[in-house]
Design brief:
By secondary structure, the protein is α/β, with parallel strands linked by helices. The chain has 14 helices and 18 strands. It folds into 3 domains: 162 residues, NAD(P)-binding Rossmann-like Domain (Rossmann fold, 3-Layer(aba) Sandwich), CATH 3.40.50.720; 162 residues, Dihydrodipicolinate Reductase, domain 2; 87 residues, ACT domain (Alpha-Beta Plaits), CATH 3.30.70.260. 36% of the residues lie in helices and 26% in strands.
Length: 435
């Protein structure tokens, strides 16, 4: 049957998952593919570090050029991460006519449009299933499984670290700092957790998924992004009283020809399936005009789940090599000349419901004054909780009916200047579409 040569750059956690998957499932892969996938070389700058998966010494190298210059290697796997060096490696591999598989969502979010263009020019594939959702086949679903649909909306949990932290805060009453420290101890969070907890990693993934869903170039710089580092346990408690859970959601929808893309903490109804997604799991809800609602759920990261997604791409690329059809499916699902530069709706134009928490002096007329400011901006209150007096202050918590974000921000600016208000207002959006 023969074999297709593969080279791996980046022998880290995911790289170990790729190697183990190729070994353990070699027979099944060959039965599906009709030939074997041979891992011919593995490149990494640190070959001495202990790893859960070993590689024969003769197949190891510290120089990625050994992979790029090997004519027997047809597919290069980039798992080194980062931007500059990874971009140079991928460009070099594509220029040499090699197919590339990557899990590098940050690089694709920033420079994917150019890299896909180069792959198209060179007649090779650039595949990236593992870049969004780890082991969950989100990319394949959007590119192939839902190809008959006009996608109307995507929303979901796309970062396991943030979801683990929020789960521990919700179920066990931990503070953000306590839950983060625990996540770091378990290896879910990096020493510098900024990309995860500030929503940036989720925004990378949403930018890629949105391009696939709505037929537009990747536009990461237009994703409105907020993180979870300011979430207070008291807001989780109040959200529960209103019938909600707080999740870091990625939300994208095409509304009247304009594209919303936003990542932020969000209240969703407790009876929605996303509210029950706990720990380091990911889940994404996709709405198609023909299929209706589709839900994908699973581990969004980790050695074996992400390794599984990488090897899935290897199988797809190998099939195209064997059939002489590289680039058979456009990277962003739509033909390059059919991608549209859809206008991005600014968050100020978004309409949704809101959760507010005010801290004010415990004086008569405070609630009516706040309500008056909101009413003057056309913001209607759906429910209010006022309790838990502390000394001379009291928290006032409310949820609103749907309102325009610009009006909300103008109202809160006015409210925060009132002499009766002691601290800046806490705002969390509510996703009505997840009811």
């Amino acid at each position: 049957m023969g074999k297709i040569g593969v080279g791996l750059v980046g022998w880290g956690t995911v790289g170990c998952g790729v190697i183990q998957t190729l070994r353990e499932n070699a027979a099944a892969i060959e039965a599906r593919l009709g030939c074997g996938l041979e891992l011919m070389r593995v490149a990494d700058l640190d070959l001495a570090r202990e790893r859960p998966v070993s590689v024969p010494r003769e197949r190891l190298t510290t120089n990625a050029e050994d992979i790029l210059q090997d004519p027997e290697i047809k597919i290069v796997i980039e798992l080194m991460g980062g931007l500059k060096a990874a971009r140079a490696l991928i460009c070099s591999a594509l220029e040499k006519g090699k197919h590339v598989v990557t899990a590098n969502k940050a690089l694709l979010a920033h420079e994917g449009n150019e890299l896909f263009g180069l792959a198209r020019q060179k007649g090779v594939s650039l595949s990236f299933e593992a870049s969004v959702g780890g082991g969950i086949p989100i990319i394949k679903a959007l590119r192939e499984g839902l190809a008959a649909n006009r996608i109307t909306k995507i929303f979901g949990i796309l970062n396991g670290t943030a979801n683990y932290i929020l789960t521990r805060m919700t179920d066990n009453g931990l503070t953000f700092a306590q839950a983060l420290k625990e996540a770091q101890g378990l290896g879910y969070a990096e020493a510098d957790p900024t990309l995860d907890v500030e929503g940036i990693d989720t925004a990378h993934k949403l930018a890629i998924a949105s391009a696939l869903a709505f037929g537009t170039p990747i536009q990461f710089d237009r994703v409105h992004t907020e993180g979870i580092s300011r979430i207070d346990p008291i807001d989780i408690q109040y959200a529960d009283e209103f019938g909600y859970r707080i999740k870091l959601l990625a939300i994208a929808r095409n509304v009247d020809g304009r594209l919303e893309m936003r990542v932020h903490p969000t209240l969703i109804a407790k009876n929605h399936v996303l509210a029950g997604v706990k720990g380091a799991y990911n889940a994404v809800h996709i709405e198609g005009n023909a299929v209706g609602d589709v839900m994908l759920y699973g581990m969004g990261a980790g050695m074996m789940p992400t390794g599984s997604a990488v090897v899935s791409d290897l199988v797809d690329v190998a099939r195209d090599i064997l059939n002489g059809t590289p680039g058979r499916i456009p990277p962003l699902a739509f033909l390059a000349d059919k991608l549209e530069h859809i206008e991005i709706k600014p968050v100020s134009d978004v309409k949704t419901s809101y959760y507010f928490r005010f801290l004010a002096f415990d004086r008569p007329g405070v609630l009516s004054k706040i309500s008056g400011v909101l009413g003057n901006r056309g913001i209607s209150i759906a429910a209010v909780i006022q309790k838990g007096r502390h000394a001379d202050s009291v928290p006032i918590v409310m949820v609103t009916h749907e309102a325009l974000e610009r009006s909300v921000m103008e109202a809160l600016e006015e409210i925060d200047k009132l002499d009766l208000v002691l601290a800046p207002t806490t705002l969390i959006r509510i996703e009505n579409g997840a009811d």
